[in-house]
Amino acid sequence: MSLPLSYPIHSIVIGGRVFGADYSFPCHVQSVTQFYAVLEGKVRVWVEGQTVILSRGQALWMAPWLRREPRAASKAGRYVNVMFRSPWPQLGAEPGRKVLLDRIALARAVECADLGVQKASAHVQAIAFHSLCLYLLGPEAFSTLDIPSPAEEPEARGQWIIARLEEFMAANVNTPLGIEDMASLVHVSRATLGRLFREHLNTSPIAHFRDIRLKRAMQLLRTSRLTITEIALETGFSSSQHFATVFRQRFGEVPSSIAREQIMYVARSAIERNAP
């Protein structure tokens, strides 16, 4: 499933499943890099002669062509498995080295698993997995990549840089990027990045990213059952109070009014569906 995107990670295939005590997979090899994370329960993974027990919030990167064999180590659980073409040849080359997922990383891994189960579009899956990798590996891993840019006029190249950064912004709304992070992701200086945004969008990179996060928050308020505090955290704001302030400045309404409108809409729809 190759993706015609400027994202550096390609051919992303996400699988996730709930398993029982009888779960096991035969010894096998793959020609792609693999990210294997346990979301609930325990899994015993044999990798190139090493046996590793993974519990909730623990994961492995596994490089191509390594022999591996997972099986259940608890009565029940859930895992996510992502196969992909990695731009980092060294990733996963240390068999059996665990990766510990903190609360944010675990939440993103769960999101990837849910998207795999829902068979979300390849583009949506790519955004979610890039968000997880950006958090786990850090912007510096992406900034070292030799990413080709179009050999066109400076105007077109500036638009390309902005479009590429917007993809990273969309993939990373719940962990705000600093200006240094943004500049490193597209291989330009802070000054150059600021100039490009002023020339093309008449705003700053930080302000543009905040606007993307607020639009995502508006979408969640209208379509999800998350609380306002949960939405604030999901879109990278440190508190619901700060979130409410900048949301009102952007949209002229407080988040709670949008949430009430959504609740009333759902209630009316339910009444209409059940009406004789």
What brief labels describe this structure?
276 residues; alpha+beta; five-stranded antiparallel beta sheet; three-stranded antiparallel beta sheet; 47% helix; disordered N terminus
What would a concise description of this structure say?
With 276 residues, this protein is of the alpha+beta class.
Q: What is the N-to-C order of secondary-structure elements (H for helix, E for strand)?
A: EEEEEEEEHHHHHHHHHH
Number of strands: 8
- What would you report as the Rg, rounded to the nearest angstrom? 21 Å
Strand ordering within the main sheet: 1-7-2-5-8
List the helices and strands and how they pair.
Layout: E1 10-20, E2 33-40, E3 42-47, E4 50-55, E5 58-62, E6 68-72, E7 76-85, E8 98-100, H1 103-117, H2 122-137, H3 139-143, H4 154-171, H5 179-185, H6 190-201, H7 205-223, H8 228-234, H9 240-251, H10 255-274
Helix pairs in contact: 1-2, 2-4, 7-10
Would you mind describing this structure in some detail?
This protein has 276 residues and is α+β, with helices and mostly antiparallel strands. Helices cover 47% and strands 20% of the residues. The protein is built from ten helices and eight strands. Strands 1-7-2-5-8 form a five-stranded antiparallel sheet, covered by helices on one side. It has a three-stranded antiparallel sheet with strand order 4-3-6, with no helix packed on it. A hairpin with a 2-residue loop joins β3 and β4 (50-55). α1 (103-117) packs antiparallel against α2, α2 (122-137) crosses α4 (154-171) and α7 (205-223) runs parallel beside α10. The model is unreliable at 1-5 (pLDDT under 50).
